[in-house]
Design brief:
The complex is a heterodimer. By secondary structure, chain A is α/β, with parallel strands linked by helices. Chain A has helices at 6-20, 42-46, 58-70, 89-102, 125-128, 132-136, 149-161, 211-222, 242-252, 267-279, 303-306, 310-321; strands at 2-5, 24-28, 51-53, 74-81, 112-117, 142-144, 166-167, 170-171, 178-181, 196-199, 204-207, 229-233, 236-238, 255-262, 288-292. Chain A is built from twelve helices and 15 strands. In chain A, strand 2 (24-28), helix 2 (42-46) and strand 3 (51-53) form a beta-alpha-beta unit. Chain A starts with a strand and ends with a helix. By secondary structure, chain B is an alpha/beta fold. Chain B has a single domain (5-246, 257-312), classed as Thiamin diphosphate (ThDP)-binding fold, Pyr/PP domains (Rossmann fold, 3-Layer(aba) Sandwich), CATH 3.40.50.970. Chain B has helices at residues 5-30, 46-52, 70-75, 81-87, 121-134, 152-164, 183-186, 194-198, 211-226, 259-266, 270-280, 286-308, 317-322, and strands at residues 60-62, 140-145, 168-174, 177-178, 181-182, 203-207, 232-237, 251-252, 255-256. Classes of the chains: A alpha/beta, B alpha/beta. Chain A binds chain B through residues 49, 52, 54-55, 57, 59-60, 62-73, 75, 88, 90-91, 94-95, 99-110, 139-140, 142, 163-164, and chain B through 93-96, 98-99, 102, 104, 106, 111-112, 114, 116, 119, 121-131, 133, 152-153, 156-157, 159-160, 163, 320, 323-327.
């Protein structure tokens, strides 16, 4: 195993899938010059025909992917920042999610939507909002988000090979996070819809993803000896691995859900409701959510105490165990 | 480019079929035998026929919504019985009865229709992009109305199509009306095709009531696209004889459209214009025309029989959930 960064792991996934399948291509804005390093060096190897820059026109840009996917290609569309997907939201949520189902499940739409997301850069709402919850609300779209370099490479490869639209943002707060990844060209995937127990524990389960997973692991390590914290990374939100979560709750009977989306209508609310419906008898305490308060993400120095952070996660763990 | 006699006969036959299909849909809507809306095509049947008749099976087509794309789709060789079955909620429908009045014929490269007007501009770029990558002469016929050209998406599609010289025909069916609002109020210039100049794209304006003129312009643009010379804008000036959709008032702005306006429009009925010409130029005799009409009537009877004899689609929720994602 080598140690590489999460953003390099994503780049390797692109590179290997681009080499393996001529129908795979990337479309975005300023990806040839790699505005973010996940596209670094790709245009040199694959050319501007497969690493495609468009004008600042998100609908047309997304349309390249949508139309090409209908034509049987496997596009990866990069919105740069997740918030920018809202500029063409009717296409990438409604039209994309309903396409297969509403037309009689006769024609697949294999495409990947990615973008940098998340708090931690003090950029404010447009550049910091999460998009996984919003996409997860629209049926017909798979939604996943990697938390480690290993998962990033395997999940991006799985997303590219999937026959459905897959939204797979990556968190800017962990883009330089290093981790072990198999050798180049040692093919593997991390299947979508499978959660991963990142740390075993017995007193409380914390469900967290991406940057917040790192926060949760840090808190769990600090509480060792006092509270035994199990940390689960859902990895995918659609489909969601309820089985792994319920199995954990059989042991811990307590749940904290950490999510960087807003409190209202986010995936944390959905997961909490499902736990109540399917695992009410497993719970010894009400589920606690650690989410973004219902305000636009502020920039500057306010972000660090408004967004979920280790202090808020620790407080939630202590409260649910009290 | 001048049309051959055979081409004129094919166009005329499709125009007769388009006219009769539109009448059938109108009748069924009034009889309560259609689900959802019907946006009648009377007065506007020639653009779809002229633009679509000479497309190949592997060319992309996104029909205009007027007449629910039937004039376009039948001209491209699609069997309308699967669409009528869809429009009546039947399990034999092109979308298994799930879509109400929408359609999808992926094997004919008619992928979708959406209520979000201008929805087809963004994917048209993708179809054109894929066609250019394949380099097998495939073209994209994007049929949209004057109203849809208000969408920013339209401008983005023109921009990218011309940047990349994509094989797309931007075929604007300008009937001067979007629901109640007039193109004169909603666009600053009288010709929607004047947009093309800003992108350096060639444009043509044709009489949308003359199916032969529409077909000539379309063939030229199709040939240009197939040759890799890039996109063309065609504006077919047409008319909407009826209200926007059956049951909606027939307003211009907020006032009833006048009888004078209707009388003037009726002078420009596309089937009458075509009939006069085929008879005058001896392309068809009256008895041959009568035979084409008889053929269309029989085709439509069979289409209705198919739809009416099909079962209503009522699959269980589990089966529907199973169809949300592809394998």
């Amino acid at each position: 195993m080598r140690t590489i960064t999460l953003i390099d792991a994503i780049r390797e996934a692109y590179q290997e899938e681009l080499r393996a399948d001529d129908s795979v291509f990337l479309v975005g804005q300023d990806i040839r010059g790699s505005i973010f390093p996940h596209t670094k060096g790709l245009v040199e190897e694959f050319g501007p025909e497969r690493i495609v820059d468009t004008p600042i026109a998100e609908s047309g840009m997304y349309g390249v992917a949508l139309g090409a996917a209908q034509e049987g290609m496997r596009p990866i569309v990069d919105f740069m920042f997740g918030g920018f997907s809202y500029v063409t939201f009717s296409e990438c949520s409604v039209t994309t999610g309903q396409y297969h189902f509403l037309h009689g499940s006769q024609h697949a739409l294999p495409l990947v939507i990615t973008a940098g997301v998340g708090t931690g850069q003090r950029l404010a709402n447009d550049h910091a909002m999460s998009i996984h919850g919003t996409f997860a609300h629209h049926p017909g779209i798979k939604v996943a988000m990697p938390s480690t370099p290993y998962d990033a490479k395997g999940m991006f490869k799985a997303a590219i090979r999937d026959n459905n639209p897959v939204v797979i943002p990556w968190h800017m707060g962990i883009m330089m996070l290093k981790g072990e990844v198999p050798e180049v060209d040692e093919d593997y995937i991390v299947p979508l819809g499978v959660a991963d127990v990142k740390r075993e524990g017995s007193d409380v389960t914390v469900l967290a993803n991406s940057l917040q997973l790192q926060h949760a692991l840090k808190v769990a390590a600090e509480l060792e000896g006092e509270i035994s914290v199990e940390v689960i990374d859902p990895r995918s939100f659609v489909p969601f691995d309820m089985e792994t979560l319920l199995r954990s709750l059989e042991k811990t009977n307590r749940l904290v859900i950490v999510d960087e989306d807003w409190e209202s209508g986010g995936v944390a609310a959905t997961i909490s409701a499902r736990v109540m419906e399917q695992g009410f008898d497993l719970l010894d305490a009400p589920v606690i959510r650690v989410t973004l308060p219902n305000m636009p993400v502020p920039g500057g120095y306010m972000e660090e105490y408004v967004a979920p952070n280790p202090q808020r996660i620790e407080a939630a763990i202590r409260a649910v165990c009290a | 480019m001048a049309l051959t006699r055979d081409q004129m006969v094919i166009l005329y036959r499709n125009l007769v079929r388009a006219d009769h299909f539109n009448r059938m849909m109108y009748r069924r809507m009034m009889q309560g035998k259609l689900i959802g809306f019907y946006h009648p095509a009377e007065g506007a049947i020639a653009p779809g026929v002229g633009a679509s008749t000479f497309l190949n099976k592997d060319d992309n087509l996104s029909p205009h919504h007027r007449g629910h794309g039937i004039t376009h789709m039948l001209s491209k060789g699609i069997d309308i019985k699967y669409y009528l079955a869809e429009h009546t909620g039947k399990d034999t429908g092109c979308c298994k009865g799930r879509s109400a009045f929408h359609f999808s014929f992926p094997e004919h490269k008619v992928y979708m229709m959406s209520g979000f007007f201008g929805y087809n501009f963004a994917p048209s770029v993708g179809w054109g992009w894929a066609a250019k990558r394949r380099n097998q002469g495939q073209v994209v016929m994007n049929c949209s109305g004057d109203g849809s050209y208000g969408q920013g998406r339209a401008h983005e599609a023109l921009l990218m199509a011309q940047n990349w010289k994509l094989p797309i025909i931007f075929f604007c069916e300008n009937n001067g009306m979007s629901i109640f609002s007039t193109a004169g109020e909603m666009h600053p210039l009288p010709d929607i095709s004047s947009l093309a100049a800003g992108f350096g794209m060639p444009a043509a304006i044709v009489d949308g009531q003359d199916v032969f003129a529409v077909a000539e312009a379309s063939l030229a643009a199709i040939e240009r696209a197939r040759a890799g010379k890039g996109p063309t804008f065609i504006e077919a000036k047409t008319l909407r004889f009826n209200e926007h959709d059956i049951g909606t008032p027939d307003l211009s702005g907020w006032e009833q459209r006048s009888e004078d306006e209707h009388a003037a429009m009726r002078e420009r009925e596309p089937l009458a214009i075509a009939t006069e010409r085929v008879l005058a130029e001896s392309v068809l005799s009256q008895s041959e025309i009568d035979a084409l009409v008889e053929e269309a009537v029989m085709e439509i009877a069979a289409v209705e029989e198919f739809a009416d004899n099909s079962e209503i689609a009522r699959p269980g929720v589990e089966e529907l959930l199973d169809g949300v994602f592809a394998r």
